[in-house]
Write a structure and sequence with these properties.
By secondary structure, the chain is α/β, with parallel strands linked by helices. The protein has 3 domains: about 1-95, Orthogonal Bundle (Arc Repressor Mutant, subunit A), CATH 1.10.10; about 135-175, no CATH class; about 180-360, von Willebrand factor, type A domain (Rossmann fold, 3-Layer(aba) Sandwich), CATH 3.40.50. It is built from 11 helices and 12 strands. It has helices at about 1-10, 15-30, 40-60, 60-80, 95-110, 150-160, 200-220, 250-265, 300-315, 330-340, 355-360, and strands at about 80-85, 90-95, 135-140, 170-175, 180-190, 220-230, 230-235, 270-275, 285, 290-295, 320-325, 345-350. The strands form 4 sheets. A 6-stranded mixed beta sheet has the order 7-6-5-8-11-12, sandwiched between helices. Strand 9 and strand 10 (about 290-295) form a beta hairpin. The relative contact order is 0.11. The model is unreliable at about 1-10, about 35 and about 115-130 (pLDDT under 50).
Amino acid sequence: MVYRKLERGAGASSAPALSELLLSALLGFKEETASSPLASGDEERLRQALVKEIRRRTHGDLLAAKQQSERLLQRLLAEGWLERRGQAARAQFLLSPMLLRALQLKALRRLLAAPPPREPGAWPLAGPKGSYQPHGAVEKRRWGERARLDASATLKAALRHGLSELRVADLRVRRGEGGKRTALALLLDCSHSMVLYGEDRFTPAKLATLALSALLRMRGGLLRVFCIHDDAEVISERRLPFVGAAPSHTNTAAALELAASWLRRNAADERQAVLISDGHPTAVRLADGGLYRNAWGFDEVIRRETLARAAALRRVGATLTVYLLADEERALRFSRQLARVARGRLQRVPAARLGGLLLRLGRG
């Protein structure tokens, strides 16, 4: 039925068929390797993904698929399922929140036979020791910890000065054990090397990130994704499906600094950082603001600055897990050093197995 509707044109496609086609196109699009140039922007990348999916479903020729993809793209924008920001080649796409949730669950199902069942009951959800059970002593709430308030003890403290004003000093919590909230900073290498040498390592990494975001949401956790290139930037969940690898260096130090800052501001019970990369860092921002790059050697300036940022991450109480998607000796040597300084761990893993390991981490 979906195929026949597509053959009759974009205007005849039902809303469920159109959304399902878009999600399949986004998950099925693989990054281009060095044999062909990288796509220039979100819009061109999405067009390529739609053309590929339409040809797979209809077995039509390339010209017809391109014409149909253009009509589909315009309808997706008109329906509000896609949001375009910016102009021309620099325009960026955002996926609607509803379709983003569907895409994350679709990615999770692709990596798992079925998504894990959601625990019944109110948030916070169950942690490694089960649902949170308050059974200990009543204490003052400390700054930055989760607000597991004991209502009775809090009201008793407020009665001392009258209930017209509730003060921070009145807040009381009861100690216990159980469900814990995780804040996870995921540092994703978006440099050109992730799609070089005839292997696409970026697509499995992005698929695993989408699935992990769905899993963490089920468990009441937080995820922030940082894209690593010449610098580092925060990638919103709605834009993540359109992000690709681009010609750039790898500034791991900048990503570690952003991750430490975000984790420091979060009052989560558990703070984690995950670095997914296929090599060693090749760029760093100097004190004067200039960008220092060296892709050819194991540079001491870059090494020193990156390790300093890893030590700062450790000081905010976060654990670092490095997933190395290559066997290159310099990258392996540096990743071991990075994990040691951060008191974390290193895992060498083929890109195809990354999703399973990353979801195991998300399960806690």
